[in-house]
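[audit] Reproducing an earlier prediction to check determinism. Same input, same settings, fresh worker. If the tokens differ from the archived copy the diff job will pick it up downstream; this log only records the rerun itself.
[audit] input (80 residues):
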Amino acid sequence: MAYTLVPTMTVPPPATAVGVVSAAVLRALAAPPEGLKEEAIGGHSRTLAHDGGGLYFTADELKLLRPPVPVPRGAFSIWT
């Protein structure tokens, strides 16, 4: 899985930017201490962090940071 560290943002940023960036920061702050990635108790286990660690945006978050596709305006011609 590839992660992008700094996405290109438009000015002004999309309305989703505050929520997406906040989620990424909270995820980074909630990450466990260095070296602890998984834990298991009995038959149950959970993954605490991904291999990259730190602050990152998922593919879905990057989609939310992209500007909306502009609505076509005006007339157009099709040459045949």
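[audit] rerun output stored. Observation attached for the diff report: The chain has a mean pLDDT of 77.
[audit] end
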